[in-house]
Amino acid sequence: MATTKATAKKAYVFFNCDEEKSEKSMNIFYNNEVFKDTKTSKKALWAKVLEEVEAGRVQIADENLKAAQDAVVNGNPCDAGQYLHFGEIVEVLCH
Asked: Do residues 13 and 89 touch, judged by C-beta distance below 8 A?
């Protein structure tokens, strides 16, 4: 009988955080929404980032807005972290 190894799938969590992006400032109980590694879910993740920007809890310089959106929606969402001030996107593995 053949056995199959469970493959971990990527997912992403958006965190509000301090300026240094310290792990202790990233609260999974506050930011408890997980976004799958799919086009639809990445669009929802971008909507979450924009919601936090519009609420004033996260900042993105205007000149970096397009690059941040492109990283989240079309690339690796974690790459958008370099453009987020008081926010971070972390990759988690799901089984």
From this structure: yes
